[in-house]
Amino acid sequence: MSAAQELHNQVMWNRLVSVVEEQAITLVRTAFSTSVREAGDLSAGVFDRKGRMVAQAVTGTPGHVNTMAAAVGHFIDDIGPERIYPGDVYITNDPWKGTGHLHDITVTTPVFRDPADDGSLIGFFSSTAHVVDVGGRGYGPEAREVYEEGIRIPILKWVERGDLNDDLATMVRWNVREADQVIGDIHGLAACNETGRRRLLSMLDEFDIPDLDDLATFVFERTTAATMAALASVPTGTYSNTMTVDGYGDPVQLACEITVTDKGMHADFTGTSPLSRQGINVPLGYAEAYFTYAMLVALAPELPNNFASLAPFTVSAPPGVILNAQHPDPVAVRHVIGHFVTDLALGAIAEALPDVVPAEGAGALWNFQASARQASASNPRPPVELLMFNSGGSGARPALDGLTATAFPSGVRTMSAEATEQIGPIIIWRKEIRANSGGAGRQRGGMGQILEVSPTGGYQFEFSAMFDRVANPARGRYGGEDGATGRVYLDDGTPFPTKGVATVPAGRRLVMELPGGGGFGDPSKRDPAATENDRRQGYTS
Amino acid sequence: MGLRIGADVGGTFTDIVIELANGDYSSIKVLTTQTAPEVGILDGLGRIADQEGVSLADVEQIIHGTTLATNALIERRGAKTALVTTDGFRDVIETRTESRFEQYDLNIVLPAPLIQRADRHVVCERLNARGEELVPFDEIGARALIERIGEENYASVAVGFIHSYVNPVNEQRFRDLLLAEIPGIACSISSEVSPQMREFERFNTVCANAYVQPLMASYLVRLRDELAARGATCPLYLIHSGGGLMSVESAAACPVRLVESGPAGGAIFAADLAKRYGRDRVLSYDMGGTTAKIALIEDYTPATAKTFEIDRTARFKKGSGMPISIPVIEMIEIGAGGGSIASVDSLGQIRIGPHSAGSEPGPAAYGLGGQDATVTDANVELGRLHPDTFGAKDIDLSPALAAEALVRSVGDRLGLSAGDAARGVAEVVDENMTNAARVHAVENGKDLSGYSMIAFGGGGPLHASRLLDKLGLDELIVPPDAGVGSAVGFLRAPFAYEAVRSFYTTTTDFDVDGANRVLAELTDEAVAFVREGTDAEVVVERQVAMRYKGQGWEIPVRLGDAGSNGHVFDEMAAELLAAEFTKAYEEFFGRAIDHLAIEAVSWSVKVASVVAPPPAVELVAAGEPVATTIDSLPMFDPVTRGNADAVRVERTTMAPGSQIDGPAVIVESQTTTILASHHRAVMQTDGTLLVRRENA
After folding, report:
1. How far B372 CA lies from chain A's nearest CA (Å)?
2. Are B106 and A297 in contact (CB < 8 Å)?
3. What is the tens place of the pLDDT at every residue in B379-407?
4. CB contact set of B365 (below 8 Å; sequence gap of 6+)
5. Looking at beta carbons, which residues of chain A come within 8 Å of B551?
6. Which domains are seen in chain B, by residue range?
């Protein structure tokens, strides 16, 4: 390849990444769902005509990394290549063909070079967003089967040759709460794909190329070479780790064995606890996403996600374990366990990468998701749904302290307390750093936070608690101490369940002490100035 | 009109522009004195006054913009400052958004809070979202804290209480107690500095204000005194981040409003030019030594925002900086300037910036010891910048050093010649700026087709021709004085002030009285502010930020005369607002959504003095080919992707109607304009180059 052509291809690759970023921004701007907006719980990508992902926007959720990449292949298979027409838009929320639970709706749009020519398919745009509601029991772990979790939309045509599938739209509308917002979000997904489609076509015109094929080949070749170079920094062999987390009722053991060859890395989850009766079970594709994310952040953080960067990372698990949920297992809140897969996998390869891998962190988010209802039936007003994302501390890094009250591996942002209080009957009394919660170490674990909330006059909170790392702390590494475990109680001292449905009565405050991250290295080796500063700032006492 | 002076103090240069009585300009660039910026201004003023044979006593107005406040924040050179906040919220400015701005970096470092935890103190008090008392203000605790503030010798105090944007009473109470006990201590309260909902942004803004206030107040007073001592009798005004003028007193009390004032001047400069040329949709493109700034200007008015970030630490990435909630001219800034350094990443891709070689050591071609290849070096290698016509007279541009650096930084890694490396660097930086412009447009719900581009700053005209092609635009406007555009813009700014406040209501349960009260108070505040500077006629613009219930983004809805009856809402207001919002939403997103409740979140009133519209420029369409050329040299042409002979012309030798077809290089002292092969420039009567893309 000539130098000029090489540069030209780089520029086009760059542009393609910018196209999917535009696609993602378009989606964020119109989304109704808080988790899309605040947690970046969305993804967007462009695919070649064979369904291989060429570029993906960087968004807040690693959970869509592999699941998104695999989705378009399912669309091609289920729609049938001969039924893919210009002007079509496809949809699904199947947890096993999309991104792991019914709340994520994936929309895929084929791109034709010439809209009048059915034979000119050049690729696809696909996007996923977490919608406000999918019917069923509502968002939570209480369902016993996926049937109870909401409407399951198989891969179908939402639009065919420009005509909306009214029957399907009506079917969805009648089966979800907040139908306007959900239908609005589906249109938003289709619209962002359309933005991508138009940008791609004008890009092909500008660069005067007929299709994506040569560019995709270039992207995959360059990425494969860089991925293999990065993989070479881990000696071939087998690495394993186990981690126990609280789970739902019974503790859950997560186990993985990572086999590194000169071709790639494979994680097997044999030894992991069996499925839960609750919807914290994880479809394997979602576990794969958090495994792949762990390997990429450790080995090749600069690599953009595409078919070739993900291909070397594979997973397996025996049937019946919590990381390999099968239809019709309940999976609604699969992130509660799924987020721990990253620390699990990083822990396995820590011995090979001692200067890279951090200590364990709080892992799963401590979301406060409640329904505020009138405490007495005399003046019934409709319940108000409340959602706050809250994060504990992350694990200390080999050369840096852990991050305080900051999500990892999830990318969520918290919401403003003032904005939350404007929306619902809640007072947030306290949201501040939890001193002494970061695991001691040469590098200290990130601190958790303390949150105190109460319902305002006449309301009570009903919610599904899903708080982990209460019984099992984030472990330190190389002599670093464990992070503090979490605690949940009412302000009168009543212990509060950390899993399951519970009520915060009117007039009471719920206190949540979020877990801290583990420390890294021998605490006695900590820089005395850092120790002194911890004391001075009140991080430790 | 008498003489007016604009003075823009930047990180490297201080630009002084004098507008003479006949409307002509003269300008001078002097080095900024970092430790005492007034020295550079006074030096420049003296020199330009001598040059033009005028005295400071003849000057009618001096308008000043400065990066001093920004730099003090970035370099953490402010006063010893305490934050006093509501019990339970001590760590808001440290825990930020609880997220990582870089999803794939295990070693991410989050920005440190401006005020460390040991200097953050709490008072027991609490209001609810309606401003009603939940916990009474603890006066005894407050007095004890004030005693401690005295003992620990804080120079400045920031006060930020929860929901103070609804009800400022407790913040005011604390300030009264503080000033009674420690007279003269600097004190900023969040309900005055930034009465907007969202505690992280508001607290951070009041901290920033308190942190730089002692420094800025003393600087402004020094400057004013020095000017008076040198015979200036005219008022001194400051340009603020929203692009309007403010008095020295206002600036000294609320210096955070000075942040980003230089770039705001640039956007006003472009808006003024847009008006002269009757271009109602304009992309303003300002490229300097370290960054490029892109702003959208519609109907001759730059887009504004209510919050922005300064000091983005990681590749100018969103979320990596310090949020400041004040009205600001909205722009996107990326690390793409002449000094931006080129490198090669693990994928073998060329990357530009965010590091910059700055002015020291500068690009390798400057011969001042710079080893890294920069964008400027690529422009030298590609024949776009020449030693004999380079603007900075004291710099001896070396093509050989540029070529060496390009090979060292890029070529060796990728097996490229200096020429190919330069082509790659230029193409990547142009692509970066193009992508930033597109993303900025998408985020603002705009489609760039049909926009004209106005390019200025030292680097803008060098790259604009390529950006024009990449963005698919047809027209480029390169004004004279491109290198000192911001300072010229200062002279075009109105006295203006935008007052913003959060006030929540919905169209289904609309609080008519509340909305009227907020709008009246905001109008009074903004008018009073403007009246400090002028008695001229003013225009009042009212806006409300609205969204569908459940959304997180608001879109601005101009109130116009909605609900007007002496500008007072009546019971019809909710319906009117809902209709206006629906219309705006459709414009933004293409499709409104039925049945959903609509929320109004924040309200703003902008009051601005009426600035006489600039004279319209009569276009000179077809012209005579330029008469005098310097020579013709080979230059890389990105359209044909090969070298082509480019004619070189001195801009000063062009007369109105002079026409040049690309490829061409038009040189002048402050910048160089490049034309690609199918671009044609025609010199206009005001010295502007109007470039059109002819059919390629």
Report:
1. 20
2. yes
3. 999 988 988 877 666 778 899 999 999 99
4. B376, B377, B380, B385, B397, B398, B399, B401, B402, B405
5. 31-32, 37
6. 3-73+217-256 (3.30.420.40), 77-211 (3.40.50), 496-609 (no CATH), 624-693 (no CATH)
